[in-house]
Amino acid sequence: MLGNNIRAAKRTPNKQQVFQMAKAARVVMIDNYDSFTYNIVQYLGELGAEVLTYRNDEISLAEIEALSPSHLVVSPGPCTPNEAGLSLDTIRHFAGKRPILGVCLGHQAIGQVYGGRVVRAPEVMHGKTSAIEHLGQGVFAGLDNPLEVTRYHSLVVDKDSLPECLEITAWTPDDDVTPGLVMGLRHRELDIEGVQFHPESILTHQGHELLANFLKRA
């Protein structure tokens, strides 16, 4: 049972500490033509990061390299990973070279790159909240557990299809309307992590802290 792996959350940093951890980051954001992208950009900027945003069909891998980013974020989007422009290739190319965070569609793209299947969710979640459980590691370090998050998705990464190299880091609990779904995953060896929910939503608790956990990774 996933719930048996819950670990106690540590105390979260205050806003000034969060800012100090994140202010040196230079982030390239791959925008999958999603209305939420610039909310994530705003959160990252509030944390002190420099964010360079490009649509998924308006930049090449070589051009991303030339920007010398410290971090990469693959945004949400209205499609599947197969229609997400440069997103899949970005994850493949920069894996092990830069920390990568995938949000919603970006999370699904990470799953697909490593062999996971992206499937229809049992219920469409549009602006609905869930109290998810997590391991307290990676971007979830120090966050509330359970953590209240906001979900906008009709697809999920099938947990039974995940390869050994990917670890489930967050999930919906047994009493959720959609129990047992993957809400977070990460690569076991590379600095690549995804979240199915939207950390930038006003109804998601500790969204800034979650993004700061990502930005403070070098």
Automatic annotation (TrEMBL):
<feature type="domain" description="Glutamine amidotransferase">
    <location>
        <begin position="28"/>
        <end position="216"/>
    </location>
</feature>
<dbReference type="GO" id="GO:0004049">
    <property type="term" value="F:anthranilate synthase activity"/>
</dbReference>
<dbReference type="Pfam" id="PF00117">
    <property type="entry name" value="GATase"/>
</dbReference>
<dbReference type="GO" id="GO:0005829">
    <property type="term" value="C:cytosol"/>
</dbReference>
<dbReference type="InterPro" id="IPR050472">
    <property type="entry name" value="Anth_synth/Amidotransfase"/>
</dbReference>
<keyword id="KW-0315">Glutamine amidotransferase</keyword>
<protein>
    <submittedName>
        <fullName>Anthranilate synthase, component II</fullName>
    </submittedName>
</protein>
<dbReference type="InterPro" id="IPR029062">
    <property type="entry name" value="Class_I_gatase-like"/>
</dbReference>
<dbReference type="InterPro" id="IPR006221">
    <property type="entry name" value="TrpG/PapA_dom"/>
</dbReference>
<dbReference type="InterPro" id="IPR017926">
    <property type="entry name" value="GATASE"/>
</dbReference>
<dbReference type="GO" id="GO:0000162">
    <property type="term" value="P:L-tryptophan biosynthetic process"/>
</dbReference>
